[in-house]
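Sample entry (389 residues):
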Amino acid sequence: MIRKITALILSFIMLFSLVACQNTDTEKEAAESLSEDSVEAEKVKNFKIGIVTPTLSTSEDEFRAGAEMAEKYPDVVKHITLPENFNTELETGISQILSLADDSEMKAIIVNSGQSGLLPAFEQIREKRPDIITIATMLDEPELMAKYVDISFATDWVRRGETIPKKAKEMGAKTFIHYSFPTHLAKESVAQRKEMMEKTCKELGLEFVEIITPDPQTGDGPAAMQQFLREDIPRQIAKYGSDTNIFGSNCPMYDVIIDEALKLKFIVAEQCCPTPTQAYPTVMNLEIDAEDLGNYDKINALIAEKTKEAGMTGRLSGWAMPSQIYVPKFEIELAKYIIENGLELNEDILNVEFLGDFSEEVMGTRADFRALDEDTDNYYLLVLESIYY
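Predicted structure, serialized as tokens:
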């Protein structure tokens, strides 16, 4: 009997010891798992995003966008600039981009530059740091960018040949006048946009009128072109009436076009570069403080007020901000969202519905995204939604 009791006690002791050991192992595993989760959480908390833009003197909008985001997220965004003499210092530019990948906390690298030749940097980043998300807006071949860059974005300048006439029609236009000059029409994107405008106008029942101005690149510069517009626009409005939309393919044209629109009441659905800072501040004598130069809500409100005073409400339109400002900021916000939420670059991110909704949420303006083609899911062309003054 005593032996049975002793054996029973020993069994309890062994069972208790086994359970205790199992509990200890489980607690150890839980502690290790918690430690690993803490490390991963710390990595997500302490991460960096690199944004690479041209210098202020080379491309003001992209530079200011990068600088503003670095100020907004000082512990996250690191802003560097490409060499001033980009074409002769291409290797330096590539080295500068690669230097960002040397930082172990760097989780995304974004290059926003109206230049080409930087793709080798992305190839090397993919080999060296495949964990880094790469995003770019550059002028390299889209097919190559889709191959070497995780996500690419570009403004859809050509598709605007369709969207602008449609908007002009909605704003009441019956005639669509297109001003340009030979050296500009020699550019493929300008020519394609014009051809699409003509085609779309025909489909919509708008009369399309093409007028060639003096060429500022071969003649007396912009002055002769602007003087021609100053004299010709009143003639065309007298002929076709105020329900005419005028589009010029060249930025300096709009100092005249918008000024004449305020006098003659014709429609300007969109500028060649649709931004509230092109021509409007000058023509309307807007008083914009230095600290408000990037406050597009305020600038748009000032334009709307002046438009109303001129009896032109609903006759002028554009984009709420320059695409060169929008794109870098959007790319940074997107990278930050992906990293903070531990997301994969799959169909949940790489689709036009998500991108449009995300743009509206974080940028306050929606963009219409379209994939480059049906076989490409990581290169998107975009058109920003319109603002009507």
